[in-house]
Amino acid sequence: MVKHNKGSIKHKVALAYHLQANLGHVLLQDKEIREQLLHLDENIESTWKEMVSIGVVRECSDCALEDGSCCGAGMENSYDEVLLLINLLLGRALCSQASVEESSRYVITRSISDKAILEDGIASPSARNHKKGEAHDSTSCYLLGENGCLLRAREVICVNYLCGRIYRSIEKEKLIHLQRIAGNELNSLFMLEEYIKKRLRGYPTPGL
Ligand code: SF4
Ligand code: SF4
After folding, report:
1. Is 32 among the domain residues?
2. Domain around 135
3. Is 166 in the pocket of ligand 1 (CB under 6 A)?
4. Residue 196 domain-assigned?
């Protein structure tokens, strides 16, 4: 296994894969975790549906194709290995810009945002500065893939961020409603993260 600097996103990705390989089956035997994962996944879907419904996805798609913007380098630093592990448990692969050694190719399967990308050729809000067909560049978030964000479960900044363009183009009441729905997603993520952290205590930290 290649060594990465502790605290770097590559190190956290490697840790997440290590945890999944060694403890994933233990975690998934826990009924509480299975139920919380399902609940989180449903809440994430609700957020995406609302974003599509009120026009956030369309607005971000247009923006991304025009000039790109939000998912800049450094954003990945707010992610830790537990949140990355949750994404693995949700079936996502964490392929990276610089290396795919710990991961497999990202396959689009589930989220409505991804379906929108495939079916309509539009980008998700998380595809923000990723124009179709362009390669990664060092100015982008490490977790931004070819077809948008690699993650299903995201940090609050990635779920809740709405720029001035969005505020100018979509009614305030709709955005407030969206943020209520996104709040459910973030609450369920927080609960799951805390529960998994508790379960992981007592297991030796992998020396990667
Ligand atoms: S949030 Fe704003 S800046 Fe970011 S992609 Fe959407 S429209 Fe563009
Ligand atoms: S939405 Fe995804 S790609 Fe964009 S900044 Fe957040 S983690 Fe990075």
Report:
1. no
2. 9-24+41-200
3. yes
4. yes
- pTM for the structure as a whole: 0.82
Residue 109 — pLDDT band, cuts 50, 70, 90? very low
> Looking at residue 113, what is its pLDDT?
38
pLDDT of residue 139: 87
Q: Are 37 and 192 in contact (CB under 8 A)?
A: yes
Let me know if 31 is exposed, middle or buried by CB neighbors in 10 A (0-12, 13-18, 19+).
exposed
Whether 95 and 106 have beta carbons less than 8 Å apart is answered as yes
Which of the listed residues 56, 63, 75, 140 should we mutate to test ligand 1's pocket, taking the one with most ligand atoms within 8 A of CB?
Answer: 63
The structure tokens 């799951």 sit at: 192
Domain membership of residue 4 (yes or no) is no
User: Could you tell me which residues come within 8 angstroms of residue 8 by beta carbon, excluding any fewer than 6 positions away?
Assistant: none
Atom of ligand 2 nearest to the CA of 142: 8
